Amino acid sequence: MGIRRLGHVGLNVSDVDAWVDLFDRTLGVKARVEKYDDQEVTLLELDEFTYRLALYPSTDDAPRHIGWVVDDERELDRLSGRLEDAGHAVSDGTTAEARLRGATALRWFSDPVGYRVELVLGEAKLGRSPSRPPEATPGVTGLGHFVLASPRLGELRELYESVLEFKLTDYRAPGLYFLRCNATHHSLALAHADQVSIHHLEIEHGSLDDVGRALDRAQRNDAPISISLGRHMNDKAISFYLRNPSGFHLEIGFGGIEVDGDRTPHDFGVADVWGHHHADANPFATPAEA
Protein backbone atom coordinates (compact mmCIF):
# COMPACT_ATOMS: atom_id res chain seq x y z
CA MET A 1 0.00 0.00 0.00
CA GLY A 2 1.28 3.46 -0.87
CA ILE A 3 0.21 5.22 2.33
CA ARG A 4 2.23 4.05 5.30
CA ARG A 5 0.57 5.83 8.25
CA LEU A 6 -1.05 8.97 9.62
CA GLY A 7 1.74 11.52 9.69
CA HIS A 8 0.44 14.79 11.08
CA VAL A 9 -2.56 16.99 11.80
CA GLY A 10 -2.55 20.78 11.72
CA LEU A 11 -5.25 22.75 13.51
CA ASN A 12 -6.32 26.36 13.45
CA VAL A 13 -7.03 27.17 17.10
CA SER A 14 -8.32 30.26 18.87
CA ASP A 15 -6.57 29.52 22.19
CA VAL A 16 -3.11 28.04 21.70
CA ASP A 17 -2.17 28.56 25.35
CA ALA A 18 -5.12 26.45 26.53
CA TRP A 19 -4.07 23.59 24.23
CA VAL A 20 -0.47 23.77 25.45
CA ASP A 21 -1.63 23.82 29.07
CA LEU A 22 -3.91 20.79 28.58
CA PHE A 23 -1.14 18.69 27.02
CA ASP A 24 1.43 19.77 29.59
CA ARG A 25 -0.64 19.25 32.75
CA THR A 26 -2.51 16.14 31.62
CA LEU A 27 -0.17 14.25 29.26
CA GLY A 28 3.22 15.62 30.19
CA VAL A 29 3.76 16.74 26.58
CA LYS A 30 5.81 19.87 25.96
CA ALA A 31 5.48 22.32 23.10
CA ARG A 32 7.91 24.33 21.05
CA VAL A 33 7.37 27.24 18.69
CA GLU A 34 8.60 27.43 15.09
CA LYS A 35 8.54 30.36 12.70
CA TYR A 36 6.49 29.83 9.54
CA ASP A 37 6.16 32.67 7.03
CA ASP A 38 4.94 35.62 9.11
CA GLN A 39 3.51 33.65 12.06
CA GLU A 40 4.48 31.29 14.83
CA VAL A 41 3.35 27.64 14.86
CA THR A 42 3.22 25.63 18.07
CA LEU A 43 4.31 22.00 17.72
CA LEU A 44 3.35 19.45 20.38
CA GLU A 45 6.09 16.86 20.90
CA LEU A 46 4.15 13.59 20.63
CA ASP A 47 7.16 11.48 19.61
CA GLU A 48 10.69 11.80 18.22
CA PHE A 49 9.52 13.38 14.97
CA THR A 50 9.40 17.13 14.47
CA TYR A 51 5.85 17.48 13.17
CA ARG A 52 2.87 15.50 14.43
CA LEU A 53 0.32 17.90 15.94
CA ALA A 54 0.63 21.57 14.97
CA LEU A 55 -1.36 24.50 16.34
CA TYR A 56 -1.80 27.60 14.19
CA PRO A 57 -3.16 30.72 15.95
CA SER A 58 -6.49 31.74 14.43
CA THR A 59 -9.78 33.43 15.20
CA ASP A 60 -11.58 30.16 14.37
CA ASP A 61 -11.16 26.53 15.45
CA ALA A 62 -10.97 24.16 12.49
CA PRO A 63 -8.74 21.50 10.92
CA ARG A 64 -6.06 23.08 8.74
CA HIS A 65 -4.54 19.97 7.17
CA ILE A 66 -4.30 16.19 7.58
CA GLY A 67 -1.10 14.49 6.46
CA TRP A 68 -0.40 10.92 5.38
CA VAL A 69 3.12 9.52 4.98
CA VAL A 70 3.71 7.76 1.65
CA ASP A 71 6.19 4.92 1.08
CA ASP A 72 8.33 6.41 -1.69
CA GLU A 73 8.39 8.78 -4.66
CA ARG A 74 6.94 6.22 -7.04
CA GLU A 75 3.95 5.69 -4.74
CA LEU A 76 3.52 9.43 -4.36
CA ASP A 77 3.29 9.76 -8.14
CA ARG A 78 0.98 6.75 -8.43
CA LEU A 79 -1.44 8.01 -5.80
CA SER A 80 -1.36 11.51 -7.25
CA GLY A 81 -2.38 10.01 -10.59
CA ARG A 82 -5.22 8.04 -9.01
CA LEU A 83 -6.49 11.19 -7.29
CA GLU A 84 -6.43 13.20 -10.50
CA ASP A 85 -8.15 10.40 -12.41
CA ALA A 86 -10.89 10.50 -9.75
CA GLY A 87 -11.35 14.25 -10.22
CA HIS A 88 -9.25 15.61 -7.33
CA ALA A 89 -6.87 18.42 -8.28
CA VAL A 90 -3.43 17.70 -6.78
CA SER A 91 -1.00 20.54 -6.04
CA ASP A 92 2.59 20.69 -4.83
CA GLY A 93 3.15 22.14 -1.39
CA THR A 94 5.51 25.06 -0.99
CA THR A 95 9.12 24.67 0.04
CA ALA A 96 8.31 26.32 3.39
CA GLU A 97 5.43 23.89 4.03
CA ALA A 98 7.59 20.87 3.28
CA ARG A 99 10.43 22.18 5.43
CA LEU A 100 8.14 22.81 8.41
CA ARG A 101 6.76 19.28 8.21
CA GLY A 102 10.20 17.74 7.86
CA ALA A 103 9.24 16.33 4.45
CA THR A 104 11.30 15.99 1.28
CA ALA A 105 8.17 16.25 -0.88
CA LEU A 106 4.58 17.34 -0.23
CA ARG A 107 1.44 17.25 -2.36
CA TRP A 108 -2.09 18.09 -1.34
CA PHE A 109 -5.72 18.05 -2.44
CA SER A 110 -9.10 18.95 -0.98
CA ASP A 111 -11.33 16.11 0.20
CA PRO A 112 -15.13 16.05 -0.37
CA VAL A 113 -15.79 18.11 2.78
CA GLY A 114 -13.15 20.73 1.97
CA TYR A 115 -10.34 19.60 4.28
CA ARG A 116 -6.80 19.86 2.96
CA VAL A 117 -5.26 16.38 2.78
CA GLU A 118 -1.51 16.07 2.34
CA LEU A 119 0.68 13.24 1.04
CA VAL A 120 4.28 13.57 2.21
CA LEU A 121 7.61 11.84 1.80
CA GLY A 122 10.01 11.81 4.71
CA GLU A 123 9.75 12.56 8.41
CA ALA A 124 12.49 14.61 10.08
CA LYS A 125 13.39 13.75 13.66
CA LEU A 126 13.84 16.09 16.60
CA GLY A 127 17.41 14.98 17.19
CA ARG A 128 16.60 14.29 20.85
CA SER A 129 14.03 12.45 22.92
CA PRO A 130 10.82 14.37 23.65
CA SER A 131 10.39 15.60 27.22
CA ARG A 132 8.29 13.31 29.43
CA PRO A 133 7.38 13.05 33.14
CA PRO A 134 9.84 10.95 35.21
CA GLU A 135 7.26 8.20 35.75
CA ALA A 136 6.37 7.84 32.03
CA THR A 137 6.68 4.25 30.76
CA PRO A 138 7.19 5.65 28.08
CA GLY A 139 4.21 8.03 28.09
CA VAL A 140 2.79 9.53 24.91
CA THR A 141 4.22 7.74 21.86
CA GLY A 142 2.49 9.43 18.94
CA LEU A 143 -0.59 10.25 16.92
CA GLY A 144 -2.81 7.21 16.46
CA HIS A 145 -5.97 7.91 14.44
CA PHE A 146 -8.85 10.31 13.93
CA VAL A 147 -12.57 10.08 13.29
CA LEU A 148 -14.06 12.30 10.58
CA ALA A 149 -17.82 12.85 10.74
CA SER A 150 -19.72 14.20 7.73
CA PRO A 151 -23.02 14.06 5.82
CA ARG A 152 -20.91 13.09 2.75
CA LEU A 153 -19.94 9.69 4.08
CA GLY A 154 -20.28 7.89 0.75
CA GLU A 155 -17.89 10.28 -1.03
CA LEU A 156 -15.34 10.00 1.77
CA ARG A 157 -15.47 6.21 1.65
CA GLU A 158 -14.98 6.32 -2.12
CA LEU A 159 -11.94 8.57 -1.68
CA TYR A 160 -10.21 6.58 1.03
CA GLU A 161 -11.15 3.05 0.02
CA SER A 162 -11.30 3.19 -3.77
CA VAL A 163 -8.75 5.90 -4.54
CA LEU A 164 -6.26 5.90 -1.65
CA GLU A 165 -6.59 2.12 -1.13
CA PHE A 166 -7.38 1.99 2.60
CA LYS A 167 -8.84 -1.32 3.76
CA LEU A 168 -12.11 -1.65 5.66
CA THR A 169 -11.43 -3.37 8.99
CA ASP A 170 -14.94 -3.37 10.50
CA TYR A 171 -18.00 -1.19 10.93
CA ARG A 172 -21.12 -0.44 12.97
CA ALA A 173 -24.40 0.02 11.17
CA PRO A 174 -25.79 2.32 10.06
CA GLY A 175 -22.84 4.65 9.45
CA LEU A 176 -19.47 4.17 11.16
CA TYR A 177 -16.52 2.63 9.25
CA PHE A 178 -12.99 1.84 10.47
CA LEU A 179 -10.21 1.93 7.86
CA ARG A 180 -6.55 0.90 7.96
CA CYS A 181 -3.46 1.71 5.92
CA ASN A 182 -1.10 -0.63 7.82
CA ALA A 183 -1.42 -3.44 10.37
CA THR A 184 -2.93 -1.15 13.01
CA HIS A 185 -6.68 -1.80 13.38
CA HIS A 186 -7.51 1.67 12.07
CA SER A 187 -5.83 4.97 11.29
CA LEU A 188 -9.10 6.58 10.22
CA ALA A 189 -12.77 6.16 10.96
CA LEU A 190 -15.55 7.73 8.90
CA ALA A 191 -18.94 8.48 10.39
CA HIS A 192 -22.23 9.87 9.20
CA ALA A 193 -23.26 13.14 10.86
CA ASP A 194 -25.31 16.19 9.96
CA GLN A 195 -22.31 18.51 10.39
CA VAL A 196 -18.70 18.13 9.26
CA SER A 197 -16.27 17.73 12.14
CA ILE A 198 -13.39 15.78 13.57
CA HIS A 199 -15.02 13.79 16.34
CA HIS A 200 -11.69 12.94 17.96
CA LEU A 201 -7.95 12.56 17.60
CA GLU A 202 -6.31 9.64 19.37
CA ILE A 203 -3.07 10.28 21.27
CA GLU A 204 -1.24 6.97 21.55
CA HIS A 205 0.37 5.89 24.83
CA GLY A 206 3.05 3.29 25.47
CA SER A 207 1.45 1.48 28.40
CA LEU A 208 -1.78 1.04 30.30
CA ASP A 209 -0.11 2.66 33.31
CA ASP A 210 0.53 5.76 31.22
CA VAL A 211 -3.18 6.00 30.41
CA GLY A 212 -3.98 5.58 34.11
CA ARG A 213 -1.50 8.26 35.14
CA ALA A 214 -2.92 10.61 32.50
CA LEU A 215 -6.39 9.98 33.94
CA ASP A 216 -5.09 10.77 37.44
CA ARG A 217 -3.54 14.02 36.21
CA ALA A 218 -6.70 14.96 34.32
CA GLN A 219 -8.86 14.43 37.40
CA ARG A 220 -6.39 16.21 39.67
CA ASN A 221 -6.27 19.23 37.37
CA ASP A 222 -10.03 19.33 36.65
CA ALA A 223 -9.47 18.67 32.95
CA PRO A 224 -12.71 18.21 30.96
CA ILE A 225 -13.13 14.41 30.82
CA SER A 226 -15.80 13.90 28.16
CA ILE A 227 -15.88 10.07 28.02
CA SER A 228 -14.89 7.88 30.94
CA LEU A 229 -12.29 5.10 30.97
CA GLY A 230 -13.38 2.08 28.94
CA ARG A 231 -12.42 -0.60 26.44
CA HIS A 232 -13.59 -0.59 22.83
CA MET A 233 -15.16 -3.73 21.41
CA ASN A 234 -13.56 -3.65 17.98
CA ASP A 235 -9.90 -2.62 18.44
CA LYS A 236 -9.75 -3.58 22.17
CA ALA A 237 -8.02 -0.29 23.08
CA ILE A 238 -8.39 1.01 26.63
CA SER A 239 -8.87 4.76 26.75
CA PHE A 240 -10.63 7.82 28.06
CA TYR A 241 -11.43 11.09 26.30
CA LEU A 242 -10.82 14.76 26.99
CA ARG A 243 -12.71 17.71 25.54
CA ASN A 244 -10.02 19.91 24.03
CA PRO A 245 -10.13 23.74 23.87
CA SER A 246 -11.40 23.63 20.27
CA GLY A 247 -14.44 21.60 21.32
CA PHE A 248 -13.81 18.10 19.99
CA HIS A 249 -12.39 15.03 21.78
CA LEU A 250 -8.89 13.75 22.40
CA GLU A 251 -8.78 10.00 22.98
CA ILE A 252 -6.04 8.99 25.42
CA GLY A 253 -5.46 5.35 24.52
CA PHE A 254 -3.35 2.21 24.63
CA GLY A 255 -3.54 -1.38 23.46
CA GLY A 256 -5.25 -1.30 20.08
CA ILE A 257 -4.86 -4.57 18.21
CA GLU A 258 -3.19 -5.22 14.86
CA VAL A 259 -4.94 -7.14 12.07
CA ASP A 260 -3.70 -9.13 9.09
CA GLY A 261 -4.59 -8.81 5.44
CA ASP A 262 -7.04 -11.73 5.50
CA ARG A 263 -9.44 -10.05 7.92
CA THR A 264 -13.09 -10.09 6.82
CA PRO A 265 -14.93 -6.83 7.64
CA HIS A 266 -17.90 -7.30 9.94
CA ASP A 267 -20.37 -5.35 12.06
CA PHE A 268 -18.98 -5.52 15.60
CA GLY A 269 -22.31 -4.53 17.11
CA VAL A 270 -21.76 -3.18 20.62
CA ALA A 271 -19.42 -0.20 20.92
CA ASP A 272 -17.61 -1.14 24.12
CA VAL A 273 -16.66 -4.10 26.26
CA TRP A 274 -17.05 -1.89 29.33
CA GLY A 275 -16.94 1.78 30.32
CA HIS A 276 -16.76 4.77 27.96
CA HIS A 277 -19.68 6.57 29.56
CA HIS A 278 -20.33 9.89 27.81
CA ALA A 279 -20.69 13.16 29.70
CA ASP A 280 -22.81 14.42 26.78
CA ALA A 281 -24.98 12.70 24.19
CA ASN A 282 -23.07 10.15 22.09
CA PRO A 283 -23.62 10.98 18.40
CA PHE A 284 -22.72 7.41 17.38
CA ALA A 285 -24.92 5.58 19.88
CA THR A 286 -27.61 3.19 18.77
CA PRO A 287 -31.01 3.86 20.38
CA ALA A 288 -30.39 1.11 22.97
CA GLU A 289 -27.12 2.74 24.02
CA ALA A 290 -28.20 6.37 24.07
UniProtKB/TrEMBL annotation:
Keywords: Aromatic hydrocarbons catabolism, Dioxygenase, Iron, Metal-binding, Oxidoreductase. The lineage of its organism: Bacteria, Bacillati, Actinomycetota, Actinomycetes, Micrococcales. It comes from Myceligenerans indicum. This is 2,3-dihydroxybiphenyl 1,2-dioxygenase. The keyword Glycosyltransferase does not apply. Pfam families: Glyoxalase. Its cofactor is Fe(2+). Residues 5-122, 142-255 form the VOC domain. Belongs to the extradiol ring-cleavage dioxygenase family. It comes from the Bacteria.
